[in-house]
Fold:
Amino acid sequence: MKADTELRFAQAKKHRQALFKKLKNNSVALLSAATLKTRSHDTEYSYRQHSDFYYLSGFVEDQAMLALIKRPAGNKVVLFCQPKDKTKEIWSGILTGPDAAVGQLHIDEAWPIGELDQRMPALIDGSERVYYSIGQDAALDTRVSMWVNDLRARTRQGARAPVQFEMLDPLVHEMRLFKDAAEVKLMQKAADISARAHCRAMLAARDGLYEYHLEAELQHEFISSGARFPAYNSIVAAGANACILHYIENNKPLRDGDLVLIDAGCEYEYYAADITRTFPVSGKFSKEQKALYDIVLKAQLKAIDAIKPGVAWDEPHNITVRVITEGLVELGLLKGNIKKLIADGAYRDFYMHRAGHWLGIDVHDAGSYLKGDKWRPYEAGMVTTIEPGIYVSPDNKKVAKKWRGIGIRIEDDVLVTRNGNRVLTHAVPKTTKEIEALMAGRQ
Ligand code: GLY
Ligand code: MN
Ligand code: MN
Structure:
């Protein structure tokens, strides 16, 4: 087995052991692999494992199910997966099969997925509580009910049906929020590849190309670095397209005088990076572009600076709101008293999203943002993005024409450390000076 595959299975085992500690005695946790989705006729989308299933198994095949059984006498991990199948393997690749899965995944038992309905009631039997995230897969919900009903129907023969259900995902998501050293290493690798991709796109930009030419540069760097897929659809937005927050058409021309906003990050070994940079096609910011850019940059740097254990989740967001409102007033795009503009949400015409989100196996990663009814404090091991922006709609008649159609976002990935934070995505130029210097080196 390749070293990274071994690491993945060892990590998953660690995660299962931690989860077992959180499960109540005499319980079972059930979760399923993602299903393969049809793209057209008989071709499928590239398969991507369900994030929680991956976190707890490391297993990347479809048609699989995991049962984690906790008893006073000890824990048991049971996998159901596709059996070895010579014909299928000739067409679509090697399957692990139950026999090999036991050793490779460090689990106790594995069975062919075709035996799921027959074996599952016996595995659930004796569990007072079932941890299962209902509502994600209606067909599976029905099957789980069927297994429980099977036990209910046989209580006179001594079957012990569960008496409680609990959602599994809040437990797993709280764990996923905290990244250990091995996870941070993968996230740093995803960040480094993505940083190189952004530099490559900056260097390739020129008048007359199309947005998709820059997307191709990103893809090239991702794939040739071993990251086959972006963590989300890459946004390459020239000119006023940058004011569409999730613009993914990427099919318009790049024009001298315009900015390009690129929001792109790869997924490396199931961990995401998420970077945004905004730069001029010509390699030189105009006066207006630079003025707005420097406000976003100031907001972003101040917000990052505030991140350390104990600080509330929304503090960096509040900082970005303050700096952006002050900056817009200074430039005349907003008028009035800063406090009142903030209280009234006047900045939302220009800055309509929050400053960040958790980052990990999912780009908008799992994990609660609240503790009780308050924003939770940062703790070491969390990773968040910080991504303020200013977007002046081309239709905004309330501001001078020279500002209209400018959209800017700057986004980095920030690991909370014991004493402060570390920016994982520092390798992409960020100040206007750094960006202009890099782009001056274009052929
Ligand atoms: N790329 C999605 C986001 O930045 O949240
Ligand atoms: Mn983001
Ligand atoms: Mn992003």
The first helix runs from residue 3 to 22. The radius of gyration is 25 Å.
